[in-house]
Every structure is written in C-alpha cells, then in structure tokens.
Amino acid sequence: MCGIVGYIGEQSAYPILLEGLKKLEYRGYDSAGVALLCPEELKVIKAKGEISVLEEKIGNGFPSGTVGIGHTRWATHGAPSDINAHPHCGCSEEFAVVHNGIIENYLGLRSWLEKQGHHFVSETDTEVLAHLVEHFFDGDLLRAVVQSVKMVEGSFAMVAISENEKGKLVCARKDSPLVIGLGERENYIASDVPAFLGHTRKIYILEDGEIAVVTANSVEILSVGGEVLQKEVSEVTWDAAEAEKGGYPHFMLKEIMEQPRALRETMRGRLLKGCSEFSLPELNLTPEEIRSIEQVYIVACGTAYHAGLVAKYAMEKILHIPVEVDLASEFRYRAPLLNKKTLFIVISQSGETADTLAALRLARQKGNKVLAITNVVGSSVAREAHRVLYTWAGPEIAVASTKAYLTQLFSLYLLTYYLAQEKKLLSPEELKEAGEALYRLPEQVETILKRVDEVREIAAYLTSWESAFFIGRNLDYAVAMEGALKLKEISYIHAEAYASGELKHGTLALIVDGIPVIALVTQRAVIEKSLSNIKEVKARCGHVICFAQEGTIEFQREVDRVFYLPTNLDVLMPILTVVPLQLLSYYAAVGRNCTVDKPRNLAKSVTVE
Ligand code: M6R
C-alpha cells in the first residue's frame, strides 16, 4: 500500500510529483504529502485526505525545487491525519523520508531512538526511518540509509532526501515494490510505473536488498553490503494512455468495457490450429512433469482467490485431480500438505500482494515449483515464481478488480485445457469444442456490454437496500462470491454469497419482503435444484434477480427479473456471468454516490500483510 514518487532533474519537481501521485492514488488515498529541496531549505507539505486536498493547500505558490519526494498514504500505523501523513522528518527537518510497507520492530527502534534524544511527533512506524537516517548521517546520505535499513525488520520501499546533500535521492527496498525511471538529465523513482510513464519507459526494477543512489545524471545500484550491481534496463511496453480514463467517468467502467480486448490479448498465440490446439510454451513443463501432476494447489487473495475457486471446479471436472484453493493469508500460517507432485499456483493481478508473495516463498521453501498467474510484468511474484503465465489485461487502476479477474479465469481455463491436452485426457474433438467455445467468449462479452441499460435498471432496485444475497450452485457459487465482493466493496451494500443448497441451514431466516437475492443459474446439471432454492426464497417474498443461460428454463414465471446470458459450455459460463454482476455493482455504487474507483478503507495493491 501507499504510493511513493521521487524526482531529480532540471524541471520544477512539484508538478511532476503531483502528477505521479495522482497516478498512484489507487495505492492509498487517505493523506498525501511532498518534500522539496528548495535553494534555501527542505520544505515539507502534507494534508489529510485525497491528493486534491494537498493540491488545494499548496495552490499555485508551490516551492520551486528540482528535487523532491512525494507520498500517498493508506494508513496502517496511526489514523489518517496531517501529522501521520508522509514525508516524515527527523528532529532537525534536514531529512525527509517516504515509505511504503510496515516496520515491524518500530516500537523497539522508537524507544531506542528516544533514549538517544530523538523526539517523535507522529504515531507512524515510518517516522523511525527518518530519525534513523538522521541519527546515522555523518555527511553521507547513502551510508545513513544503509545503516538504517540494516536495523529495520519488516517490509519497506523508501526514499530519503537531505538538505545536506541536495543532488541525490537514496532509495531502498525489501518486500515492497520500487522502480526507477530513467530520463535525460533527470530520473524518477516510484512504487509503480504509471507514475512516470508520461516521461520515460526505461526502467530499473529494484530488487529486495538493493539500494540506489539517484542523481539527475546517474543511477547507481548497490547491495546492502556496498557492492555495486550491474542491472539491465527494462522497457515498459504499454502506453501511458492505457492508464488514463479515456472518456469514461470511472476507471472501473473503462476496465469493464475493455474486457473483450483483454480476453483477446490473453488468448493471443495460445489457441492454435483453428482452436484445436492449446499452446503455453511459457510453462516450459516437460511431458513427464505434466504427467506427474497429481494435485493442484492455488493460493491467492480477494478476487484472485475467487478466480482460483472457479478453477477448482473446472480443473477437477476436466483433469480429474484434486484442487485445493487457499487464501494466502491462511495458507502461510497453516501446515499445508504439498508434495513433489503438486502444481503450485499463485494468482495476483498486481504481483505485489504481500500474503500471496509470502505464500509463494513458503511453497518454494518446501521445494515446490511455483507457477504465477499475474498481470504485471516484472512484479515481485513474476520474478520469484519459476514460471509465469501473464494475463494481458493491461493496467488495472480501479480498486475493484474486473478485467484482471476475467483474464485470470481465461488463463486458468487455458491452463486446464492445455494440461488436459498434454495428459491426453480429452479427445481432439473435445479439445476443439473447448477451443472454439473459448474463442467465442470475447464476442459474447461484447454483446453483454451492450446491455448496460438492462443492468442499470436492476441496479436501481438495489441502491435503496443495505443488504443483498448472491446464491448459486457449483461454478455459480464461486461466481456468486465474486459478485458479492464486488457489490460490497464499491457500493457498501452488505452482500453475502451462499451455496444455494445452504440457504435452509440458516440464511433463509434473513429473507424478508423485497430483499434482493441474485440467483445465478447457469449450470444445467443443477438447474432443477437451483429452481427449488429460488422457490424457497420467493415463498419468503425475497426479490429474485436471476442470471441464466438463454434457452435453458423459462425463468420469468419464477422470478422477479431475469437476465439471459449468451450460451456457452457450462464450465466456461463464469466468464459471462460475472460481467453483468460487475456492471450491477458499478451502477449500484454510482446510484449511491460512492467513490467507485477508490472505495473507502481500501487500496489497489495490498503490500502489507
Ligand atoms: O493484486 P492481487 O490480485 O494480488 O490483489 C488481490 C486482492 O487484493 C484483490 O483482488 C482485491 O480483492 C480486489 N480489490 C477486489 O476487487
């Protein structure tokens, strides 16, 4: 969480920092601040609230320095406030530090520093970093940062500046992302590339344990031990425009609408020979390795976890092997049973989620090969996994994940059918049928996206309710969980997903006159069973909104509203079912005047555990 930016060059730093912070606001938005090295002194300005509040506070009379750092915060230690906002200074205000991560031993460090005479003003863990740098400074900022990070336990991406050494920024990372953008007589630092994509595409990705000294004309990267490292410059391939709203009122709507394109990108080069052959060379698995897979373990958080749940149903059905799906935050503190025949998969849009990364590392320690499904090239997860399957969704900015989820599902289907092909579990005809069905999906999503008005009407019913239920059986249950998460995270309507068959074991008590119940009924094998559950809800006067495949059952008579989805293989229906649910959440949130792209208390990239 939190977004960090840094600039050093010949231009006025403040507008560049501000622009960068706005691009990183998805990482946190409860307070923001900047520190600038001005000719006379180091100036720090910060404000509680979104970046616009800081912008208003500073107005047009911004400090003129050409070196500076900035931060947008997602609070962990200390409530959002002006004082807890970053940058933080030492006692003397000669040093300023921005930080993303959690310093786990900050209480011990704080009392040690207090005994040395340091005076603290905030409740944050970060402030110890500023005091440590000040404490160790002997004329060399790099040495002070090295000494400081050696004392710190936990995770950090940090940048420090000092008015005693005006021509440099010093940054370091451990378990939190940091990239350096390379310009002409100017350089940038940020938590994520969009912050400086309007200026440069050439980057260094800082690895754990690395420290960089960045001046206007040079970037030197060192290990904590002081060894100078030679790193390769990477080139960012996506466009700055892709990270803009492009005329849509919200990133979320733009990203929902981009889904057909994202699916096509994810499919590219992976469905061959008239859709009869699945190709995933990036897996680099030998036929023996594939044959030896006897179990799949999928670990992820939030929406990515929900994608894993869909995969469990699909893989068990098609591959006939057990699939475990676990929340990363649970997995890492259990005693999971993995063995050499387990294919271990982590799913993460950002590739930076702290719990997912920790789960990946745990699986590696246990000797497992890890396959990552991620959207961000060069992310920590991508770098640390043995193999990577990229979801080519493009940058996802809205906190609510949409196109990343859809492309995660698509990648998981591709993986499932690829393994089935290599294990010879399906006939050529069955593989071709699946390939063609997958190929149809982007177009089918397009047709759903044209029916926005229908979904908007359904959403209008939801907006006045504080509670809603999502029910479904089998694959529909997995999608129901994602539908409920989407609705609650952006519209703040309390939403719960239940396996339809579970209703009578407690939840039915909550069904009252008119309460919205979104019933997903796309799985033909359990239609009759689902219908019985719908009748149980109707008998208690619940308001049932049904999502079903066209041409299955005539649901109109049974429910209050039905949205017919284009038909496809039952196993692939989650890709189609979730799209109107995303739109439903979006319009419910808009109808309730919620801050769609930046829901309260959340952040896009959860880099703390
Ligand atoms: O970047 P990741 O896929 O690892 O993120 C995992 C979750 O934080 C994320 O999916 C979260 O649940 C979304 N905001 C939900 O829309």
CATH topology of the largest domain: Glutamine Phosphoribosylpyrophosphate, subunit 1, domain 1
Rg estimate, integer Å: 25 Å
- The strand count comes to 27
* Anisotropy-based shape: globular
Integer average pLDDT: 93
Portion in helices: 25-40%
User: What is the number of helices?
Assistant: 18
> Which percent range describes the beta-strand content?
15-25%
Largest beta-sheet details: 8 strands, antiparallel
The domain tally reads 3
Distinct small molecules bound, one entry per kind: 5-amino-5-deoxy-1-O-phosphono-D-mannitol
Low-confidence stretches: none
Based on secondary structure, the structural category is: alpha/beta
CATH class of the largest domain: Alpha Beta
Distance between the termini: 10 Å
CATH superfamily of the largest domain: Aminohydrolase, N-terminal nucleophile (Ntn) domain
What's the architecture of the largest domain in CATH terms?
4-Layer Sandwich
What does the model show?
The chain is α/β, with parallel strands linked by helices and 609 residues long. The protein folds into 3 domains: 3-244, 4-Layer Sandwich (Glutamine Phosphoribosylpyrophosphate, subunit 1, domain 1), CATH 3.60.20.10; 253-449, Rossmann fold (3-Layer(aba) Sandwich); 452-591, Glucose-6-phosphate isomerase like protein, domain 1 (Rossmann fold, 3-Layer(aba) Sandwich), CATH 3.40.50.10490. 35% of the residues lie in helices and 23% in strands. The chain contains 18 helices and 27 strands. The strands form 5 sheets. It has an 8-stranded antiparallel sheet with strand order 3-2-4-1-10-9-11-15, covered by helices on one side. Strands 5-6-7-8-12-13-14 form a 7-stranded antiparallel sheet, covered by helices on one side. A 5-stranded parallel sheet has the order 19-18-20-21-22, with helices on both faces. Helix 9 (302-319) runs antiparallel to helix 16 (475-491) and helix 14 (428-449) packs parallel to helix 18 (573-591). It is globular, with a radius of gyration of 25 Å. The chain starts with a strand and ends in an 18-residue tail after the last helix. It binds 5-amino-5-deoxy-1-O-phosphono-D-mannitol. 5-amino-5-deoxy-1-O-phosphono-D-mannitol (M6R) is lined by residues 301-304, 348-350, 353, 356, 399-401, 485, 489, 606.
